[in-house]
């Protein structure tokens, strides 16, 4: 009595039955065992649930799971190579850009997507690209320093 | 999640082969991932009450926050025809992320202020039009451009509706239940001098308190505003005043600004006051007219 | 404080060592409370009052119980123990007792197979209401004596007069902590009538006390566990869903999970008190304060929560970090039908600081002094009597040093960029550079450290040597601020051992660490860890006749004399400490006495670009000099200061819960605006290290300071740019434009 969908999540084909009007965020967290994607507002106003969906960084709370059939999704759990952290994850740690950590998965995913589309963003570009991700703890300073450190290295 | 069996007791509507049944969120939901426009129109003809789903940035907020449970949903995400864009027509499925690169300067400026980058990646101009929120940031441009809304149904084919006949009230349009917004038709005479601005109390990701588009072409100035009336509006009295001036002086712009403030019909709500909206509408219109002259 | 030479160790105090929970947080593997689940668990949901004040005339849970998948529907009748809870006063019913006293008050709770069914079942409950007039005007509440606490402070000569007088009336709106992590609880029944509870909390022991009373269980039957928390800022100091989720688990015998959605979170936790404040400052011609007279009203909403302590803080810090011999303060926190208020970062001082620093600017202008010069002339220092309580300032208080350090930070070049992203209005493209005016403003803020007024404030910690390394056992709550790192650093430095891990313990395994609030955990739990580590080290060294501890064992004159395995041959060796700060006392009838255990001071300078015609502001930068006592982790300090400044900035120019007749009009992230990356000012930090008289290595708590004086500094800068008086925060476009 549910919609069966097949999605490729973090490189793995997953079949799952989703409920009517359930969001992809719920499916990832509750059905696919991927709670790394965070649920903080469910209205696309905080970016905590950002995933890469068919190549675009989107709020998974605003994707109807039934509509995700056939999509390719990368969540925070799929960032980095196995146990090897992504350079953005490394530099976020080094710069102290993680405090409570609730926004962190969203920043990592949005940031990785930014770096894939623009490897040397300017400071205003970094700010604008991440303006859909709310952080309530850090004041963004350390996050900005993390991105700046990464994008100015070996520029 | 467990216990989705509850929906078994609910009435089961007849479904075509392509419709899929999703249950468990308390209601049964029929879901169709339309593959093309014909399939969309056929489904909408069959189920006029079906909710269309494009970027999901309005519908899913209602689902998540207001706990709205649509019983039938047709997804437009796979309908290629709606993503076409020419100089005279923007398909309803074109995202705001794409429109950030539009040749129409003010439309590109407006696109950049809609939601967040994540929202713009999926939200469409067709969704902005069909939702018809007074605060729809794409709508003042449509009004200033004298654009028309292209809609289509299986029974009656295509209708092309002037924008001011399409938007009829707060979240109300003249779209018939079996119709689908397929695009926005852009006249040939849209001036290239066109500017957009939007006031919000935050520098990103904010619902507009006032938005404004001013265009300046051979026929003079066109001025449209959002969030100051139930629908996007043109301030024709202000336009006429400015267009009657032989030379646009500072005095004329001041008077123009005053008339804009007078002509808009804003309300006070939790985002701002009527008085501020009137004031800001006048300031924005004047500043944008100056930008068009520069 | 130990006098021995500190051993050289990696990751000790003074270094910016990284968080142990950092890697799980960047990979998505960190378990927040809302991530917990178990097979077969139920979901809880809450029915809430749709009225700010109403009588519940009928409550029919039948329709909800009849639904497939619903396992329990509970009301106030199902509360077997104390019907009321509350941290200070037990004045709030667990569920509606027949009268709803605020909008969104919990009425009934449901457990069902899934979240959706639980929510639908809650909605299916039939509640019939008879609406009553809400008492929503705090001044009216004060008039009729609907109060939680009144504070009276009289010091010096009430008839004293200054030759320069400035008066003002100030208001602050309701700010929400809006932590990104929602309220969440996961309750697992133990099959013997008790349960384990994993909850978002700032103080599990004070939760535990209230929970067992309402459930009528013995202390050891309920075990409250610290769970992963996505920020708190005061919102988790009071009970939200804790008792509800426990009741549902006990009623069903199943594990139950409850998570608030964002709109529910906005009604489900206490907020920063809105305030109204009348002030009169009197000074002599040279700017020396002669007398401060003030009357403050804070709206505590429907239930007490921590309001009695918040109003004391507002009153005692109503003069700021200045000397003044004559003080007349009347402060009251009232009971209304508005949303309950309680703790938020700054705890009453934020409101008073906005008003008193605005007054200091008015006074400086009246006298013709630079804003910082006036503050320097009156700066409070160790040995001075505190203006309100009269207590002599002990320990460090580098007020002049923070002012001087702030002034030494270079002022940026004027309006550097045409990039709209860095201008007022941002990508809304409202504001050409020609429409921008720049302003600079200053403020200095003072805050007490840890709990005051004679509260028996302590923190327990256990430091344990095991063959695998040192364990720190604590029930202190890590909300993201970095306590976990600081505890490791302190233990490493004291013990000379690298391998240190913090192991969180539940309420049955260790005593209270006290609240993660009041800027207290670095000093309190940090102090307990310090003393326990000293105790453990001395015990081990004396037992094995050594002079130095290292990762592999005890050394004497450079020779290993006992390995870790030998030290632990009879099991782990431990030292358990209950740490207390210097004793404080309740105020006398005039508000006098040794009320506070310590003080911290900070100064802020804001630079703003304003579009006065549209009333739009971009806060360009907020620089700060911060008294830290001793910097245990400089990077973590900067993170707390930047984050705190951002919340102060949000309160200055955008954050307001709009409340109308007791109803919150904007309980969503669409309309309760929090600063984004494009709003974030640059911050430069100067750290002032003057060790305090208590706490580990002289360190002070610093997490509230940045939220206290940043707000008035920003408003002062907007005043400087616009010439407007701006007496209410947040300053909205309408206030600047004046329409």
What does it look like?
The complex is a heterotrimer of chains A (155), B (294) and C (739). Chain A is α+β, with helices and mostly antiparallel strands and 155 residues long. Chain A contains five helices and five strands, in the order ββαβββαααα. Chain A has helices spanning 24-31, 87-94, 104-117, 123-129, 141-152, and strands at residues 3-9, 12-18, 50-53, 56-59, 72-74. A five-stranded mixed beta sheet of chain A has the order 2-1-5-3-4, with helices on both faces. In chain A, helix 2 packs across helix 5 (141-152). Chain A is globular and about 45 Å long. Chain B has 294 residues and is of the alpha+beta class. Chain B is globular. Chain B has three domains: 16-75, Uridine Diphospho-n-acetylenolpyruvylglucosamine Reductase, domain 2, CATH 3.30.43; 82-185, Uridine Diphospho-n-acetylenolpyruvylglucosamine Reductase, domain 3; 193-293, CO dehydrogenase flavoprotein, C-terminal domain (Enolase-like, domain 1). In chain B, the strands form four sheets. Chain B has a four-stranded mixed beta sheet, covered by helices on one side. A four-stranded antiparallel beta sheet of chain B has the order 5-10-6-7. In chain B, strands 11-12-13-14 form a four-stranded antiparallel beta sheet. The longest helix of chain C has 24 residues, at 521-544. In chain C, helix 15 packs across helix 17. In chain C, the strands form eight sheets. Chain C has a seven-stranded mixed beta sheet, sandwiched between helices. In chain C, strands 9-17-16-15-10-31 form a six-stranded mixed beta sheet. Chain C has a four-stranded mixed beta sheet with strand order 18-26-27-30. In chain C, 25% of the residues lie in helices and 26% in strands. With 739 residues, chain C is α+β, with helices and mostly antiparallel strands. Classes of the chains: A alpha+beta (155), B alpha+beta (294), C alpha+beta (739). Chains A and B meet through helix 1 and strand 4 of A and strand 1, strand 2, helix 2 and helix 5 of B.
């Amino acid at each position: 009595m549910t919609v069966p969908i097949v999605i490729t999540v973090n490189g793995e084909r997953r079949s799952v039955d989703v409920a009517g009007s359930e969001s992809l965020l719920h499916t990832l967290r509750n059905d696919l065992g991927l709670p790394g994607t965070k649920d903080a507002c469910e209205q696309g106003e905080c970016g905590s649930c950002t995933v890469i969906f068919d190549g675009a960084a989107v709020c998974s709370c605003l994707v109807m799971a039934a509509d995700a059939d056939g999509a390719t999704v990368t969540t925070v759990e799929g960032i980095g190579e196995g146990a090897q952290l992504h350079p953005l994850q490394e530099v976020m740690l080094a710069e102290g850009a993680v405090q409570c950590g609730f926004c962190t998965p969203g920043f990592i995913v949005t940031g990785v997507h930014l770096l894939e589309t623009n490897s040397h963003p300017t400071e205003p570009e970094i700010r604008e690209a991440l303006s859909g991700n709310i952080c309530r703890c850090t004041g963004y300073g350390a996050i900005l320093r993390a991105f700046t450190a990464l994008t100015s290295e070996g520029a | 999640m467990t216990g989705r069996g509850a929906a078994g007791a609910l009435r089961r509507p007849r479904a075509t082969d392509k419709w899929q049944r999703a249950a468990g969120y308390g209601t049964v939901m029929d879901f169709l991932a339309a593959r093309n426009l014909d399939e969309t129109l056929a489904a909408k003809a069959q189920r006029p009450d079906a909710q269309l789903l494009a970027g999901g940035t309005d519908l899913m907020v209602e689902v998540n926050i207001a706990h709205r449970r649509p019983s039938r949903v047709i997804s437009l995400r796979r309908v290629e025809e709606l993503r076409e864009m020419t100089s005279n027509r923007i398909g309803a499925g074109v995202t705001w992320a794409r429109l950030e690169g539009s040749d129409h300067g003010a439309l590109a400026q407006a696109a950049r202020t809609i939601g967040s980058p994540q929202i713009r990646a999926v939200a469409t101009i067709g969704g902005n039009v069909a939702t018809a929120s007074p605060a729809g940031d794409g709508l003042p441009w449509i009004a200033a451009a004298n654009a028309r809304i292209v809609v289509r149904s299986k029974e009656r084919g295509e209708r092309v509706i002037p924008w001011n006949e399409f938007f009829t009230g707060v979240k109300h349009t003249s779209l018939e239940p079996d119709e689908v917004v397929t695009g926005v038709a852009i006249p040939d005479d849209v001036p290239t001098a066109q500017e957009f601005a939007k006031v919000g109390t935050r520098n990103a990701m904010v619902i507009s308190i006032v938005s404004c588009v001013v265009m300046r072409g051979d026929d003079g100035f066109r001025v449209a505003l959002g969030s100051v009336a139930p629908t996007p509006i043109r301030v024709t009295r202000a336009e006429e005043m400015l267009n009657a001036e032989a030379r646009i002086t500072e005095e004329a712009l001041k008077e123009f600004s005053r008339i804009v403030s007078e002509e808009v019909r804003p309300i006070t709500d939790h985002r701002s006051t009527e008085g501020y909206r009137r004031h800001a509408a006048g300031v924005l219109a004047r500043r944008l007219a100056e930008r068009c002259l520069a | 404080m130990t006098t021995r030479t500190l051993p050289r160790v990696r990751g000790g105090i003074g270094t910016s060592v990284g968080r142990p929970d950092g890697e799980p947080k960047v990979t998505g593997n960190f378990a927040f409370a809302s991530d917990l689940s178990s097979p077969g668990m139920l979901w809880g949901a809450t029915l809430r009052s749709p009225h700010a004040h109403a009588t519940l005339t009928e409550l029919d849970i039948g329709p909800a119980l009849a639904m497939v998948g619903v396992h329990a529907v509970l009301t106030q009748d199902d509360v077997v123990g104390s019907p009321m809870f509350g941290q200070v006063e037990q004045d709030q019913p667990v569920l509606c007792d027949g009268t709803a006293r605020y909008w969104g008050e919990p009425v009934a709770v449901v457990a069902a197979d899934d979240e959706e069914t639980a929510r639908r079942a809650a909605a299916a409950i039939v509640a019939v209401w008879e609406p009553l007039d809400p008492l929503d005007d705090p001044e009216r509440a004060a008039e009729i004596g609907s109060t939680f606490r009144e504070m009276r402070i009289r010091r010096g000569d009430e008839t004293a007069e200054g030759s320069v007088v400035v008066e003002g009336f100030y208001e602050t709106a309701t700010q929400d902590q809006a932590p990104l992590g929602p309220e969440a609880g996961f309750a697992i029944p133990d099959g013997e009538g008790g349960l384990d509870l994993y909850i978002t909390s700032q103080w599990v022991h004070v939760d535990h006390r209230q929970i067992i009373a309402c459930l009528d269980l013995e202390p050891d039957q309920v075990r409250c566990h610290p769970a992963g928390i996505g920020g708190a800022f005061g919102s988790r100091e009071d009970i939200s869903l804790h008792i509800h989720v426990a009741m549902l688990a006990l009623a069903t015998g199943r594990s139950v999970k409850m998570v608030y959605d964002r709109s529910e979170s906005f009604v489900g936790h206490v907020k920063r008190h809105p305030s109204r404040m009348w002030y009169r400052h009197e000074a002599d011609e040279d700017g020396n304060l002669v007398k401060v007279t003030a009357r403050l009203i804070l709206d505590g909403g429907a239930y007490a929560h921590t309001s009695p302590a918040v109003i004391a803080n507002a009153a005692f810090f109503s003069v700021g970090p200045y000397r003044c011999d004559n003080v007349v303060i009347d402060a009251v926190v009232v009971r209304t039908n508005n949303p309950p208020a309680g703790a938020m970062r700054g705890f009453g001082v934020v409101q008073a600081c906005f008003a008193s620093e605005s007054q200091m600017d008015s006074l400086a202008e009246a006298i013709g002094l630079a804003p910082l010069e006036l503050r320097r002339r009156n700066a409070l220092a160790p040995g001075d009597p505190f203006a309100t309580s009269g207590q002599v300032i002990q320990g460090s208080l580098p007020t002049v040093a923070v002012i001087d350090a702030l002034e030494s930070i270079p002022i940026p070049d004027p309006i550097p960029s045409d990039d709209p992203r860095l201008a007022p209005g941002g990508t809304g493209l409202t504001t050409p550079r020609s429409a921008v005016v720049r302003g600079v403003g200053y403020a200095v803020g003072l805050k007490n450290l840890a709990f005051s007024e004679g509260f028996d404030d302590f923190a327990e910690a256990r430091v344990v040597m095991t063959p695998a390394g040192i364990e720190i056992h604590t029930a202190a709550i890590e909300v993201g601020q970095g306590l976990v790192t600081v505890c490791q650093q302190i233990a490493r430095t004291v013990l000379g051992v690298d391998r240190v891990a913090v192991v969180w313990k539940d309420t049955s395994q260790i005593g209270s660490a006290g609240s993660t609030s009041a800027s207290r955990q670095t000093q309190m739990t940090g102090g307990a860890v310090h003393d326990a580590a000293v105790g453990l080290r001395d015990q081990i060294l004396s037992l094995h006749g050594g002079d130095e501890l290292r990762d592999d064992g005890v050394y004497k004159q450079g020779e290993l004399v006992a390995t870790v395995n030998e030290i632990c041959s009879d099991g782990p060796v431990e030292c358990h400490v209950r740490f207390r700060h210097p004793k404080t006392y309740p105020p006398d009838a005039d508000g006098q006495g040794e009320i506070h255990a310590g003080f911290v001071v900070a100064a802020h300078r804001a630079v703003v670009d304003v579009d006065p015609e549209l009333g739009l502001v971009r806060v360009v930068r907020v620089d700060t000099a911060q008294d830290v006592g001793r910097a245990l982790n400089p990077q973590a300090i900067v993170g707390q200061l930047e984050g705190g400044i951002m919340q102060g900035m949000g309160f200055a120019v955008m954050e307001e819960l709009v409340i109308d007749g007791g109803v919150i009009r904007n309980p969503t992230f669409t309309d309760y605006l929090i600063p984004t990356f494009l709003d974030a000012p640059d911050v430069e930090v100067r750290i002032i290290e003057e060790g305090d008289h208590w706490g580990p290595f002289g360190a002070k708590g610093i997490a509230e300071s940045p939220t206290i004086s940043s707000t008035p500094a920003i408003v002062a800068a907007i005043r400087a740019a616009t010439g407007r008086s701006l007496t209410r925060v947040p300053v909205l476009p309408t206030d600047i434009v004046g329409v």
